[in-house]
Amino acid sequence: MTISTRALGGDFPTPITDRYFEDYETGATYEYGHVTLTEDEIVEFARRFDPQPIHIDPDFAATGPFKGIIASGWHTGSIMMRLFADHFLSRVASLASPGVDELRWPAPVRPGDTLRLRVAVLEARASRSKPDRGIVRTRAELLNQDDQTVLHTLPANLLARRP
């Protein structure tokens, strides 16, 4: 799969290679995309990492509740992470993530779906214990071509403050 995505509207005023904690503003929302999945990509990922029949066997999947192959939720999460890392998460200030508070897959991803990422900064606050960094909490959603949410998550990231 070749990933070539871009900002879909307004983006940060600072490039990802010079983005620090101070550049993440509570209330800001950004969108990035697009990634279109083929059935072959869905099956290939699932064979390696989530080999359930609903993801790898077209005949079985046709008789299931989704009436066809659907992407693994972990594949969907991987696409979200790729877009998040390519566009939202600083390349110079990211210090890791303390975790994700929620992860949901409210709708399936099917072959031919075109996905985009919407990220909203819910909170950006200085660390109480380490003054050289801050915590950014976000709501990240993947949406398909019909504006249907196919993934919803609430990650947190630690980011260094500008030197």
UniProtKB/TrEMBL annotation:
InterPro entries: HotDog_dom_sf, MaoC-like_dom, MCH/BMMD
PANTHER family: BETA-METHYLMALYL-COA DEHYDRATASE (PTHR43664:SF1), MONOAMINE OXIDASE-RELATED (PTHR43664)
Family: Belongs to the enoyl-CoA hydratase/isomerase family.
Organism of origin: Actinomadura decatromicini
Phylogenetic lineage: Bacteria, Bacillati, Actinomycetota, Actinomycetes, Streptosporangiales
Name of the protein described by the UniProt record: MaoC family dehydratase
CDD domains: YdeM
Domain MaoC-like: 28-134
Pfam families named in the record: MaoC_dehydratas (PF01575)
